[in-house]
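Researcher: We're teaching a course module on how sequence relates to structure. For the next exercise, students receive a sequence and then see the predicted structure as C-alpha cells, so they can try to spot secondary structure elements on their own. Here is the exercise chain.
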Amino acid sequence: MLSIFRQYTFDDSFEQVFVSGKFLKEYQIALTFASDYDDNGVPTNGVFRPTWDTTKVTPESITRFKTEHQDVNIKVYISIGNRGSRFPFKPQDNKSWISNATKSLTSLIKSEEYDLQVDGLDVLYESIDASPSDFVECVGELITNLKEASLVREVSISPSFALNKEYYACLYDVSRLSINWVDYQFQNEVSSVFAPDTLVKRYNELVNEFYPKKKLFAGYSAENEDWGTLSPIVFFLGGMDILKKRRGPGVSIHYHNYYAEPPHKE
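Model: And here is the predicted structure for the students to work with:
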C-alpha cells in the first residue's frame, strides 16, 4: 500500500516519525503556519511570516530528514492559515493582500535564512472573515502567482465542513488546474463521526459532489480536544478503507503534541 502521508507540524517532530518506503511513496511535512498577523495579533494584510519553531525547523533538520529517508519522496509545504477562531483570513484590500502575500511568501520560500527546500503551498483556514468571492479572488491569484513564478510545484487546499461549500469548493472550481491536492479536515465535521463506515460515506459524498478522488486526502487531528468528533481508532479503520478499497491518494494528521504552545487555537 504505497500512499502519501502528510504531517502538520510546528516543530521538528517529523524526525521522530517512522517513515519507510515499504508503506509510503511520499511524506509531506506541512509547516504551520505562515501567518499574516504580527506578534500582537494585529493583521498585516498579506505580509506572511513563519510562526513555526524556526530554531527546530532548520535547513539542517530538513536535509538530515531527507538524507535519512532516501527511499521515500520527502516534500515540504508551507501552510498558510489558522486553527480555531483566531487569526482568520481577513484581507483589508484584495489587491494589496495579493501583492503583499505574493511578495512575502516569495521572500520566505527563497530565504537563505530558512532555506527549507519548499515544494508546495497549503491553504488551511478554519475561520474566514471575508466573503467567498474575496477568498476565491485573493487565494486564487496567490496560487497562480506562486505557480507561474515556479516558486512552488504543488498546491493543496484543506477545507472543513463549515467552509467547504461556500469557500473551498468555489476556490477549487476556479483554480482546479493549479490545485494538486485537497486535504479535507474530518475532525471539523458538524456532528461526531462514531463509525468507520460514516467516515467512508462522508468521503464518498465529497468525491461525488466536490472533489476528484485522485486528489482527495482524508485529514485528521490527533489533538485530544478533537477526539470527541473523530477518535483515533475510527479514523485508522476508516482511513485504511479509504486508502485500500477506495484508492484514495493519502491521509494527513495533526499530532496532539505538535505545538510547543497552541498559538492558533482557542
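Model: If you want an answer key for the exercise: The chain has six helices and nine strands. Residues 94-110 form the longest helix (17 residues).
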